Input
Amino acid sequence: MTILIAGGGIGGLALALTCHQIGAPFRVFEAAETIRPLGVGINLQPTAVRELMDLGLGDRLDGIGVKTRDYGMYSKLGLHIWTEPRGTWAGYKWPQYSVHRGQLQMMLLEALMERAGPDCIETGWSAVGFDSGADDATLHLRDRSGQRKSVKGSVILGADGIHSTIRKIIAPHEGAPKWGGAVLWRGTTQAVPFKSGASMVMIGHDGLRFVSYPISKPDPATGRATINWIANLTYDPDADWNKEDWNREAKLDDFLPQFSRFDLDWIDIPGLIKAADKVFEYPMVDRDPLARWTHGRVSLMGDAAHAAYPVGSNGAGSAIIDARKLGAAFIAHGMTEAALQSFEDEMRPKTTKVIEMNRVAGPDSILDIVEQRSGGQFNDIAEVISTAEMAEHARKYKLTAGYGIEETNASPPTIPKGAAIGPMVNPRERT
Output
């Protein structure tokens, strides 16, 4: 029997690569006719980078991303609040990477097709339903012409994102994703990197925030790199906003005037915005935690299971970790309902905490504390907030999100080298 994966995004592809690594038969069904490198920049914490390295993808990841060196916070007036090292500079055994989301997805796709062959993923097929029996599960699919087909497997994983059809069936009364009033405008611009050259910076406060970091290495000839940036404004949550248009090209007039007031000598925020090829608008949404993910031989992973506000740099990484935890569960329990329940029992409580924490106390809330206490103006940040308070806030967030330094370094591999499900396969066919 086979593991059926609904969705060929980062989580679904990471699960497919994991299945191939452990010798578990699988098939991936992706709604898009052609998988393209869409999106903008994302960050991968060391916990997720470790899993990609254990999949034999470390060199490929280094070829498309930047090892994030530090993370700095600045008030709306450009005053320095706090900088902490990241990745190996912080003491992790593995780096943190900033990377273009689409390039990461294409890297996973290319590796999967090289290892498992092009027939392992079928594009143009959307999940529309499922049946779960005592011994197998059936995934119902439809293409754009309306043609339907059904495929039997051992288990089904809904990796079909925040608008998951599989989730809608498991939780039919849930409704649309929740918008709390924040809108993100995102783009990439060719420019010279700032600060250390591999810095991630966050400027402003809740309601007026700018985040930026490089997602490519500098061009040797020009010194320019691809700089990812995010402009964040908040509105009344009851406002008449187009919350369902998740990825539309934006008009600069909708947000540039508010960010033109930033006048910093080390980063040209209005210039970065104006020089972007395209700017996309995203209402910042999440979903309430579910009481369960698993329905018989069907379960959820990634954003389909636990979509959270995009703060803390752990969205895509969480999907990768889900994939690896599922692989470990399949090794321990086989391709069974017990494996899905074991995965859920471990991961649902953890991701529930992240969803709830990201709504009120993400790592960026230090900016809000400073704004509330000082209006962003100070001579000495220690008179506003102590280094100890900021360090403790950062430490607690990492622990809750699952990437505390000591805990990450001390944890054993999710999938031990050579571990497999059922009969061993040819080692040369596995990473």
Observations:
- Confidence is low (pLDDT under 50) at residues 424-431.
- The longest strand covers residues 178-191.
